[in-house]
Amino acid sequence: MTAWHPPSGVECLAGVDEVGRGPLAGDVVVAAVILPKNHQLVGLNDSKRLSPKRREELFEQITASAVCYAIARSAVAEIDRVNILQATLNAMDRAVKALSVVPDYVAVDGNRLPDWRFRAEAVVKGDGRVDAISAASIVAKVVRDREMMELAKRYPDYGFEAHKGYGTARHLAALRQFGPTPIHRMSFAPVRSARDWPSRPL
Prior knowledge:
Layout: E1 13-19, E2 28-34, H1 52-65, E3 68-74, H2 76-82, H3 84-97, E4 105-109, E5 120-123, H4 131-154, H5 160-163, H6 169-178, H7 189-192
Parallel strand pairs: 1-4, 4-5
Antiparallel strand pairs: 1-2, 2-3
Helix pairs in contact: 1-4, 2-3
């Protein structure tokens, strides 16, 4: 995959990525990150290609050295109301608008952009091609994984600590046995099929 470079004259680039579009439970988390132009971060990559330990190390380095970063989310209620794609785009919009520095240009992982005022480009496989997107991918992944680990303590029957809400065999079996919790996405088919079970209390 070829490297990607912003248009000529861009001085302040924000990278944006999301984590959590595919799971059956939990929020979608989006990070927007502006890195220094001559940053010294080593090993940036798609967060899925990094070990949990390395992600945590890079998370600390990114958040300490970034020009600025912001985290936004779309909660389960929004996902169920507007659909997962629109909810993700909404969270991307909120993340960039929350940055303390207004970027000249925004690079978003994937092939869709929010409807916003920023000069921007969707970069396919950008989390492995653009350092700022890689950094955003890592920040979003660490934040969401930590949240799912905490939710695993509240709902210990579902194995969130292992699968982070994705539809693994263990998760689907737990849904069939126990029904959905308040953090499950009722608009997703495997959860809808378990809706006759009583939801777990908060």
